[in-house]
Q: What sequence folds into this?
């Protein structure tokens, strides 16, 4: 607990040391917003930048989630027509989304800072690998569309969503890909509807996690607000970029950034 107390004291006095710290946060927010809008994986940019700016790992993760959540909300609003048209049975998965998000956030806040520091690079690298595998996973999603579902579908769906949501509350990079893949395995046939439900679940998962982070005083507000401004601008810019840049190009940019950052984090641990 001494390490956690030290981290909190450090957060209490942390501020921008110069104008370029704020500029770096805004820039990371913009890039994360663009990547989230076009391909997903913005956490792999915002989280390491907050580490570099001096936030302890758990606080950096909580602050990153808070900064990027407005973009998640706006994406869900954009998919409102698809959400309304989705079969009502998929709405039930919002329940384990809330519960799992809370579980993940609780586990994060109560993970010893030294333990999270050691696993953070692997979370970044692992989620980057997941992003790289997205085309294969989406292909599998399509292949599963016509399969029949057994009588235990609801229990299976609730259990799978609870596990994914717990990860989303804990770290969350690559969350959207996991949700889409799970929805494919569970039989949601319409990819547009799946994208809509994915965003609705993400709002629930990240929203309850952010509330818990705020209550537990794990958010550094000047960093979160600064990065959120960049993320909102980046989300708008991403919508324009997506019409010109190939999604695969943006995905591989995000994957490359994530892998490099993850490796750098591992090297610093040695």
A:
């Amino acid at each position: 607990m001494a390490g956690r107390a030290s981290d909190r004291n450090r957060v209490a006095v942390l501020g921008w040391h110069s104008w370029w710290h704020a500029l770096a946060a805004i820039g990371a927010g913009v890039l994360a917003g663009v990547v989230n809008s076009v391909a997903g994986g913005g956490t792999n940019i915002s989280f390491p930048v907050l580490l570099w700016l001096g936030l302890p790992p758990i606080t950096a993760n909580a602050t990153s989630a808070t900064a990027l959540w407005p973009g998640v909300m706006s994406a869900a609003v954009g998919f409102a027509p698809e959400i309304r048209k989705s079969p009502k049975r998929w709405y039930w998965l919002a329940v384990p989304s809330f519960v799992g998000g809370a579980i993940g956030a609780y586990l994060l806040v109560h993970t010893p800072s030294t333990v999270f520091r050691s696993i953070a690079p692997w979370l970044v690298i692992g989620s980057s690998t997941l992003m790289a595998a997205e085309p294969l996973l989406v292909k599998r999603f399509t292949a599963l569309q016509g399969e029949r579902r057994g009588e235990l579908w609801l229990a299976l769906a609730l259990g799978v969503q609870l596990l994914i949501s717990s990860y989303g509350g804990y770290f969350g990079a690559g969350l959207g890909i996991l949700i889409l893949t799970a929805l494919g395995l569970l039989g949601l046939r319409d990819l547009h509807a799946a994208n809509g439900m994915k965003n609705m679940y993400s709002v629930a998962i990240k929203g309850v996690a952010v509330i818990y982070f705020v209550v537990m005083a794990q958010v550094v507000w000047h960093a979160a607000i600064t990065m959120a401004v960049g993320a909102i601008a980046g989300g708008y810019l991403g919508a324009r970029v997506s019409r010109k840049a190939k999604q695969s190009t943006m995905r591989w940019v995000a994957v490359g950034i994530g892998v490099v950052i993850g490796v750098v984090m591992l090297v610093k641990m040695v």
Q: What stands out?
A: Residues 5-14, 144-148 have pLDDT under 50 and may be disordered.
